[in-house]
Amino acid sequence: MKKKQKLDLKPIEIDTPRANRWKKLAKFGKLPIIKQIARKPLYPDGLENQTASPIPVNLSLGTYEDQIVPRKLVEYFIKKAGTILLIDCPCRTANVCKNHDVHLGCTWMGRGASKVDRSKWPGARLATKEEALERERLAYENGLVPHLGKLRSDAKIYDVLDYEDEFMSICHCCSCCCVVSVMKYAPSFIQKTVKRMEGVEVRVNRDICVGCGTCFKVCIYDGLKMKKNKAMIDQENCKGCGRCERVCPNEAISISIDDYSHIDELIARFESRVDISG
Q1: In this structure, are 189 and 220 located in the same domain?
Q2: Which residues lie below 8 Å from residue 4, measured CB to CB, with a gap of 6+?
């Protein structure tokens, strides 16, 4: 009898010096003494003011107010932003990404965006709302997952800490290069800042799943596990980005939202923490 080939169920790991440094730093941060030392300067006001969320890019979620869900959400924030800064994707630039357009990078909004030193970031330029919306269209067509973020660590990296509460991002993430993939190695208090959008549910139809492992290759959150040669969603880790549903060759994975009012809740969550009108 032919021995069944063992599946490689690990997602693609970013193996570059830059990514490995981030990974080591994240793992180092799990040490109890380091967590105590690092938490206060990173989050002096606690974690309540920090939030991030992937927005699933899946047509199966349907439309909200005549627009597909991710486009509606990002359009809301772009139209509200007083300042918009576009930059090339730092992750794909550093990793010389071969799969996605490096120019479909981060969109920064708010007064903090106007204070970023543009000479330090490839492709950095102030943009109109129309230009930002066009980038969203291209990123969606390119299969990139938008991540909304209001994080103190971002303000520190971009040297705009004085404008932390006026600085928000829409990052367009791939599964092959995104630095968010190292977050699974970080302390739990950092992992908890990235939240699944309320009401979004990802499920596997085990009657259809053949256990091919394709979905594991694109999940950067360790949101999947294998049980009896069938994929299952790890509901604790899954962030609802929808990548697994898009790549499943047998359409065994579904993603849905139980109530579109959760979209308004997500908008309210960010608006209570950040003002991007400047």
Answers
A1: no
A2: none
Look at strands 125-126 and 84-87 and give their pairing: antiparallel
My answer on whether 253 and 275 are in the same domain is no
Please indicate, yes or no, if residue 126 is contained in any of the structural domains.
Answer: yes
Worst-scoring range by mean pLDDT, 33-37, 141-145, 169-173? 33-37
Residue 165 has pLDDT above 90, yes or no: yes
* Alpha-carbon gap, residue 134 to 159, rounded angstroms: 27
92 and 123 inside one domain: yes
Within 10 angstroms of residue 80's Cβ, the number of other Cβ atoms is 16
pLDDT in tens, 39-76: 556 666 666 788 999 998 887 777 777 777 778 889 99
112-122 per-position pLDDT tens digit: 999 999 999 99
Return contacts of 233-240, CB within 8 angstroms, 24+ apart.
233/202, 233/203, 233/204, 237/184, 238/196, 238/202, 239/53, 239/54, 239/194, 239/195, 239/196, 240/54, 240/56, 240/196, 240/197, 240/200, 240/201, 240/202
Adjacent-strand bridge partners of 201? 256
Based on the fold, state whether residues 84 and 117 are members of the same structural domain: yes
Residue 163 sits in the same domain as residue 242: no
> DSSP code of 188?
H
Beta bridge partners of 170: 107, 148
Is there a single domain that holds both residue 209 and residue 186? no
Region 104-111 average pLDDT: 97
pLDDT at 30 over 60: no
Q: Which two tokens stand for residue 167?
A: 């600085």
Same domain, 247 and 140: no
Q: How far is CA 108 from the centre of its chain?
A: 14
Phi-psi region of 169 (alpha: psi -120 to 50; beta: other; left: phi over 0): beta
Q: 27 lies in which domain range?
A: 9-32+67-195+260-278
pTM: 0.84
